[in-house]
Amino acid sequence: MTRCLELFSELRYISLTQILLLTVFGLAILLISVLSQPYIAVVVVPIIGVFVWLRQYFVKSSREIKRIEALSRSPLYSHISATLQGLATIRASEEQNQFHEMYNKYQDCNTSASYYYLAANRWLGYRLDIICAILMTFVAFAPFIAYETGLVRKEQITFQETNLRILQGCPRHWCCWHHLIPCIERTSNAKTLQRNEGYKGLTIKRIGDKPEQPRTCGARLFGQLVLSFYQMVSH
């Protein structure tokens, strides 16, 4: 819970600001190119639509892969914690091999999920490279067909060369920002958890104090202090 809040509060505004700046800068370059050479819109408009579709498709898939990775990471951390806490018992029982095999099993599951995410990123990057190559090829050869001047051709190639890095980075940054959305979901789910109706909580009282409700169980801490549970009484 604390990790999710910290991650979202620290990275949300910084990453979103950078993404918006890159998006505006890239769209401005494309707009200048279209205004200077209107026939470039024949390729620019479909490419923008393909970028949006790829982003939506990749976000849905990568988010589920990240969920699988998170689910496979929890048993690994739990196993490490349990092993460290019971290390003396494990060594006394000579069960080191069994725990080592369990660790390898959990680690393999988590590594597989991480590899799936890396493969999905490469899938997106490969298609972005192809789209950018198509755009650059059209911008480089279209001015020759339209009999543009050398200054216009040089200007368009310079603009698109700068824009290539932006067009490849914007979809990836948007997808990374969308991976912070599960942090919000986990935070919202934690806020809606129902309290245990059987007990109203932990209380610390002195032995001589008279409890307001019948005590069901308790344990002496030290001196005159006890830790006790009290049943919930409906009024």
UniProtKB/TrEMBL annotation:
<dbReference type="InterPro" id="IPR036640">
    <property type="entry name" value="ABC1_TM_sf"/>
</dbReference>
<keyword id="KW-0813">Transport</keyword>
<comment type="similarity">
    <text>Belongs to the ABC transporter superfamily. ABCC family. Conjugate transporter (TC 3.A.1.208) subfamily.</text>
</comment>
<dbReference type="InterPro" id="IPR050173">
    <property type="entry name" value="ABC_transporter_C-like"/>
</dbReference>
<dbReference type="GO" id="GO:0005524">
    <property type="term" value="F:ATP binding"/>
</dbReference>
<dbReference type="GO" id="GO:0016020">
    <property type="term" value="C:membrane"/>
</dbReference>
<keyword id="KW-0547">Nucleotide-binding</keyword>
<keyword id="KW-1133">Transmembrane helix</keyword>
<keyword id="KW-0812">Transmembrane</keyword>
<dbReference type="Pfam" id="PF00664">
    <property type="entry name" value="ABC_membrane"/>
</dbReference>
<dbReference type="InterPro" id="IPR011527">
    <property type="entry name" value="ABC1_TM_dom"/>
</dbReference>
<protein>
    <submittedName>
        <fullName>Multidrug resistance-associated 4-like</fullName>
    </submittedName>
</protein>
<keyword id="KW-0067">ATP-binding</keyword>
<keyword id="KW-0472">Membrane</keyword>
<dbReference type="GO" id="GO:0140359">
    <property type="term" value="F:ABC-type transporter activity"/>
</dbReference>
